[in-house]
Amino acid sequence: MFTIVLLGAPGAGKGTQAKLIAEKFHFAHISTGDLFRNNIKNSTSLGLEAKSYIDRGALCPDSLTINMLFDHLQKLPRDFQGCILDGVPRTIEQANMLSGIGYPHQLPINLVVNLVVDQDEISKRMIKRAEIEHRSDDTPEVIKQRLANYFAQTKPLEDYYAAKGILSNVDGMGTVDEIFARLADVIEKQR
Ligand code: ADP
Description:
By secondary structure, the chain is an alpha/beta fold. Helices cover about 55% and strands about 15% of the residues.
């Protein structure tokens, strides 16, 4: 199975692009944010635990997140050509767990695409999305916290995957179609 990680700041457009990639390449789209939100909606015990972190803009614990991910992977139909991970890994620890370091399972990553969007544009997109989606973690204070987490905990994954030789930076500025064309190009060349 070909596995792609989509990296980028909150509001960089990962969800939108991951969905398009999944359709075009017949990949499973796996968003840990969506998995958590589904658990919250269905009032599962995992959802209840996750909500306490999500609502204050904190990352959920690594093992909670990675266990949820593998649980979901096991239930996936076998006919996908690959999968696109949106929002995971989000810490170096999670990336290590995916490669089987300190964790009993493995999900080898073939390609990491980093969507590069400038800071002004990210703030604009997050404010716009807050107006449309009314997510409980889209208040100005929590947005600030999520951005801070991204810089402290997730951005270091760029160097982590660059050192493994599997990172591609893609310009995330422009229209959805323009960005998608760039991403599809990178994926087609690597697949
Ligand atoms: P964003 O738009 O901030 O990227 P997501 O929908 O991907 O939002 O995730 C929403 C929230 O879910 C995050 O702020 C975090 O609390 C939690 N979450 C999602 N993925 C992870 C992960 N891989 N590790 C820890 N927490 C996560």
